Amino acid sequence: MTAAAHRSAVEIGATPQGPREVPPLGEQRAAADLSHVDTVLGNGLRVLAVRKATVPLVEVRLQIPFAGDDPMHPATAEVLAETLLTGTRRRDRIAIDTELALIGGELGTVVDPEHLAVSGTSLASGLPTLLDVLADVLTGATHVDDEVARESARIVERLAVARTQPRVIAREALQRRRYGDHPYTREMPRAEDVAEVTPEAVRALHGQAVLPRGSTLVLVGDIDPDTVVGDVERALTGWESDRSAAALPALPDLAGGDILLVPRAGAVQSQIRLSAQALPRTDPRYPALQLANLAFGGYFSSRLVENIREDKGYTYGAHSGFEFTGSKATVQVEADTANEVTAAALLETRYELGRLGLVPPTDADVESVRQYAIGSLLIATSSQGGLAGQLSALAAVGLGPEWLAAHPERVARVTTEEVAQAALDFFAPSRFTGVVVGDADTLAPQLNALGGVTVERPE
Amino acid sequence: MAVPELHRFTLDNGLRVVLAPDRTAPVVGVSVHYDVGFRSEPEGRTGFAHLFEHLMFQGSESLEKLAHFRYVQGSGGVFNGSTHPDYTDYFEVLPSAALERALFLEADRMRAPKLTAENLANQIDVVKEEIRLNVLNRPYGGFPWILLPPVLYSTFPNAHNGYGDFTDLEQATIDDCAAFFDTYYAPANAVLTVAGDFEIDRARALIEKHFGDVPARPKPHRPSFAEPRPSGELRGSHTDPHAPLPALAVGYRMSDPVNELDGYLAHLVLAGLLTDGDGSRLQQRLVHREPLVTDINAGAGLFGPFEARDPDTFSITAIHAPEVSAERVLGALDEELESLATTPPGEQELAKITARWSANLHSDHDRLMSRTLALGSFELLYGDASLVHGLADRIGAVTAEEVAEAAKALRPDSRAVLLVEPEQGGAQ
Fold first, then answer.
1. Is residue A284 less than 8 Å (CB to CB) from chain B?
2. Residues 269 to 308 of B: which have CB under 8 A from any A CB?
3. What is the ipTM of this complex?
4. Which residue ranges does the record assign to the Peptidase M16 N-terminal domain (chain B) (predicted)?
């Protein structure tokens, strides 16, 4: 590559001293306890405020249960989310953005089949303004005709872009495979529904569904939890209803079944997506299952990644992880692979699923995933934003900082035998269903030969 | 907030070290930045700097293949690496009990990485899957970071695809790897950064213990990548087999990020004025008032600011409906730039950008991984990690006239315009 003389690879890889001992770990200090207040306001909103004054900012996460079984609900909810910050009786779109910008702030909305989430951040000194804007949009958003029309048009364009993304195509196919027509599958609305959403319907949904009772508000940052709860209560005066926000009905449990091959003509890479029923965080066996999942595909040093990436080069990234929905949970196994190795990658994935139960993780394997579970949680919660995200997910299922603080101890107590039992009970290949999205002409012959795969018929 | 503590020193072998203690959480970040990125890879070897980054995770004298990942994660830590135009970084964030282990792992691969043909072949396959995932099999893959540079720039270092062509990747040899390592991965060509929960004296001793005997090698000559600015408007187009809507990217040259930092910061403020938030000029006009585009973004650097030396790119990207012509979007853009160039922005408009930058920089600082990487990259590119802590104030000091100057410099007769056209001729 360069003309200059250089050492050979063999010369580079060895020193006169030879290999050295990897140093042991030192003493680990525990994270400091954080002062917090966890309370339910008179309007039924649960507020969790945590002091973490590492930088002069505050993070805010509001989650409103937002389920609906009307076929138009996903489209109306999407337009509602996209117009929530476009104007109130007191402020127009630009005034909202200007006030937020001047406090170094942002607010954003995301809606899914379970929740409407409003997330934000600002300099801590700007919290009164942030709360004032938040209260204003919750109680006074006008969803005016022009904004509804413009945002609906943008949503249609964005949906067109999203639905060409392989990961979105695969997600929608997996949702249909797992839950058929259940409202939980409607993560993105249909473009034709969005085009039909009326401003009246958006405003009506806001009145019926943007409700405090059953919702959660998490604040993390350079704040005094004791006083901030009063500030929140005063700011949100006027956000009232006797009714509760709409929780998604419990999902049916998954059963194992054939993998569905979903055609995507001409694709140069396939998406493998497998899923099975798992356990929620409140289940006593969850910590053991968490460790079993890490050992399978939940971190880089897992059997799945070491096999299909580091040994065989079939994929850039393979991963398994949990999806928590209400009181239920599932596990997902994902890999994107080149066409010519897709069937082989599925074969190896099934092999590793079976092997996890039959040749379970050793003491050393369990020790490694235990350290990772504890350490990565410590890292994830060491920033304000990371902690706010964790607490918001926990708060939505009725848990709080106590669960987070006690989790390392729960993980520390898990035995190798408990991990082996969880692996056998939950990772058996027969428990999984799923999809492969890709070029059917190329993939079908090999996948049919492998078996346990059904080819989707064109509609 | 008090100014964070910072210690900088250099080992005898030339390795520069930045220490930034902060005991608020029991976690520690370790990074090594090497002063070589994809602008330095030779013709015929596109993508080599990134491929080599993968190889550095594949084992070293004391660590078998897979051991690096297992030691980091088995200590409760997370890791990654990334390749940029002008540098390549490797990093871990771990519970602070694993500090010495992380230093050992980085020192071992700086001293003696194991570069084998088998691992090279394996990682060529992995990188090809990465490129299929991020470029070939998705809409707007490589937009604009791979597609815009060949329109704006004329020399190989600035114009070529940093992910690489498959044919080039497949031709990489172990001897290429040895030459690249010996040339560019010298301790004198690197910066080690440690941030978070540790004691200064102990960290210094551990760094000396593990890195002190990495043999010194000459620091390679760093060539200039300078080239003249375009003398007209350059046009290019790309047909995207997956994209449902047309897109465009406009690329401009901008102030030298290192030697003209205040001018560079004025461009950052300008980018905020143009597209940050609903109240920004291009969002107001092009997304909402007229409206011509679905989304629009402006920014300095194709991977974000402070990622490259000169020349760096100021870019504006937009996705738009098929019935909207690129010329209408460009016309509106030029009018808004012209308006800013003749009438500098007001005090409140600047205050919005300054406050958001201040909050964003605090937020970056709060995440140990981004704090560690920022300190390392500023030490490498600017020779001064402490600049990170003064950035918010310097951005706050940018004047309306400087922003107007920056807007004036974004001229239609010296830029690149890339049009992305959907293969199917637009949305269904």
1. no
2. 276-280, 284, 287-288, 291, 294-295
3. 0.94
4. 16-132
